[in-house]
Specification:
elongated, about 425 residues, 8 helices, alpha+beta
Length: about 425
């Protein structure tokens, strides 16, 4: 009896243990099968990484002319719009240079204007000399005929010949003066005369230097990294501060090289920023795959040709564009950590972009207005000092045609 009771008590725990092992094995089998089904139907189409960070443009503000800082109109974290003045430089020296350039342009315009006026005067002198030659020719011819009859002496005839030669010499001198003056005005007007254009370029440059003493914001964005101080002397190219347009940020997601085989441009990406956690989900798409690994573009690239080489899995950055509306609702900052998950089901896209940009990726127009304002200033100065001589080309052509019309009036004119 005791032996039978001991046997039944030993068999009971063994049966419970066997059932527990069967249940545990069944759970693992079910879990494995479930994961296999999940991986086959869903999981294998997604690649994820937590080595992803928010990136964006950092527009460095630098001066274009040297000067001393007299005012700073924006500080860190301030929002500025394109064209807003950020830093002001002392304008005393550039104002003097601008005044000198304006005065020189005005003087040059008046000097060139006098050249065109002199053309008319010299043309009149040529016409007068031509009439004197014609008169001397008539007198000589008349006295030559009278000499044959004895009514005029040979001495008087010699005087007529001398007068003829003198008139011809005066005509030649007048023509030379006119030609010399026309060489400075031919095929040009006061506005586009080379001397005026040279003086105008100096006014243009001086005006740009004067206006560039007020350093503007090139784009809309937030001020960061301000290093400039009042009283500091700055030179062209020295960084003063930075502007970060937070509406133009993107995500650089660094995937392992084994994850890139199925990635294509245009594939959708789900993003989760550590700043907001899982409560906020961003949507984006791949717009480009990096041309090399991070180590290849590092300051000191790895040298693998060594005896103690150890293979390290490389990563390539993937540029992800974020939905602008979601970015506007939940703004991000440059450098924030992000978890990126790429849906690789759609394989129709390319791995590398083959199209070149038809338009600039980024541009600003805040500097172009200065050229327009400088041109307007030059035009005002020229118009103020030009007077009524705005049709100089027609005057020159008229003078030249008047000379040609008198080409047959004297022997000297035809020879000249």
């Amino acid at each position: 009896m005791n032996t039978q009771s001991e046997t039944s008590s030993t068999a009971a725990p063994n049966g419970k243990r066997k059932r527990a092992l069967i249940i545990a094995a069944s759970v693992f089998v079910i879990a494995g099968v479930s994961y296999g089904i999940y991986w086959g139907l869903h999981g294998r189409f997604y690649q994820s990484t937590d080595d992803a960070y928010v990136a964006g443009n950092v527009v460095i503000v630098t001066p274009q002319t040297p000067g001393t800082v007299v005012a700073i109109k924006a500080d860190d974290t301030d929002f500025v719009k394109a064209g807003d003045e950020l830093v002001l430089l002392d304008k005393a020296d550039v104002k003097v240079a601008l005044d000198q350039a304006e005065a020189q342009l005005a003087q040059t315009v008046r000097q060139v204007r006098s050249l065109f006026t002199t053309n008319s005067s010299l043309s009149a002198n040529v016409e007068l000399a031509q009439s004197q030659v014609a008169k001397a020719q008539a007198d000589l011819k008349r006295r030559s005929n009278l000499t044959k009859t004895g009514a005029v002496s040979f001495e008087e005839l010699n005087h007529a010949e001398t007068a003829m030669k003198s008139a011809q010499a005066d005509l030649l001198a007048a023509q030379e003066k006119l030609a010399t003056n026309q060489a400075f005005t031919q095929n040009t007007t006061v506005d586009d005369h080379p001397a005026v254009q040279q003086a105008a370029s100096k006014v243009h440059a001086a005006y740009l230097d004067y206006q560039r003493a007020a350093i503007p914001a090139a784009v809309d964005g937030y001020v960061a990294k301000r290093s400039v101080q009042v009283g500091q002397h700055v030179v062209p190219g020295s960084p003063l501060l930075a502007i970060v347009p937070l509406d133009q940020v993107w995500v650089d997601a660094n995937f392992k090289e084994g994850q890139l085989a199925q990635m294509r441009i245009g594939q959708p990406v789900q993003l989760e920023a550590d700043m907001y956690g899982g409560k906020v989900e961003y949507h984006g798409k791949i717009v480009g795959l990096g041309a090399g690994t991070g180590s290849a573009f590092s300051l000191l690239p790895a040298q693998n040709a060594t005896g103690n080489w150890i293979k390290i899995v490389q990563r390539i950055p993937i540029k992800v564009q974020i939905d602008p509306q979601e970015l506007k609702t939940h703004p991000l900052r440059i450098g924030l950590s992000v978890i990126a998950t790429v849906d690789v089901k759609d394989q129709s896209g390319a791995q590398l972009s083959t199209a070149s940009r038809a338009q600039p990726a980024y541009q600003t127009t805040v500097y172009s207005r200065l050229d327009t304002e400088a041109d307007e200033l030059v035009k005002r100065i020229i118009a103020k000092n030009r007077g009524d001589n705005d049709t100089q080309k027609s005057v020159v052509k008229k003078n030249q045609s008047s000379i040609k019309q008198n080409d047959g009036n004297s022997t000297l004119v035809s020879v000249y």
